[in-house]
Design brief:
six-stranded antiparallel beta sheet, DNA binding, single chain, 6 strands, alpha+beta, about 130 residues, DNA-binding, Aspartate Aminotransferase, domain 1, YjbR/MT2646/Rv2570-like, globular, MmcQ/YjbR family DNA-binding protein
């Protein structure tokens, strides 16, 4: 089970991520959003920022549909996001490994190629040797 602090920790661990001041969480790379808290809108009511739901950039409609159809217990969408490569994720229904994969993939799709290369180098570099 994950929460908004897990999203924050995972997003900020990625290169060149900026957190935008908001009532929830909102992370960007190179000025492009890749994960943020869901701004729920209901008719006749003020917008509510839901930190228990993450909005993730998924790249394209095919990936969006694959997630929605393959894992409907975790992912959903609303008419406001029709035609947009975004899905909503119930954080309490995902483990940390899967969340890390989703946040990293969203970052990778929004980051410039030069930054994506930095992530690969950081992942491949050996840790400190025995000491």
């Amino acid at each position: 089970m994950a929460d908004d602090e897990d999203v924050r920790r995972l997003a900020l661990a990625l290169p060149h991520v900026v957190e935008i001041d908001s009532d929830g969480f909102d992370f960007r790379v190179a000025g492009k959003g890749f994960v943020w808290s869901y701004p729920e809108r209901r008719p006749g009511r003020p917008r509510v920022i839901r930190t228990d739901i993450a909005v993730l950039y998924v790249g394209d409609e095919a990936e969006k549909q694959a997630l929605l159809l393959g894992e409907p217990e975790r992912f959903f969408t609303t008419p406001a996001y029709d035609g947009m490569p975004l899905v909503m994720l119930w954080l309490e229904k995902v483990d940390l490994d899967r969340l890390e994969e989703l946040v990293t993939d969203a970052w990778r799709m929004r980051a410039p190629d030069t930054l994506v290369g930095e992530l690969g180098i950081a992942a491949e570099s050996p840790g400190p040797g025995p000491g």
